[in-house]
Amino acid sequence: MKRRHFLRRLGTGTLAAGAVLGAGCQQQKTAEPNAVAPAASFKPVKWKMVTTWPKNFPGLGTGANKLAELITQMTGGRVQVKVYGAGELVPAFEVFDAVSSGTAELGHGASYYWKGKSEVAQFFSAVPFGLTAGEMNGWLYYGGGMELWRETYAPFGLVPMAAGNTGVQMAGWFNREINTLEDLQGLKMRIPGLGGEVLARAGGIPVSLPGGELFTALQSGAIDATEWVGPYNDLAFGLYKAAKYYYYPGWHEPGTTLEAIINKQAFAALPEELQVIVRNAARVINQDMLAEYTARNNHALQTLVNEHHVQVKKLPDAVLGRLKDLSDQVVAEIADKDALSQRVYASFRSFREEVIQWHNISERAYLNARAAG
Ligand code: CA
Question: What average pLDDT does range 257-271 have in this prediction?
Answer without folding.
Answer: 98
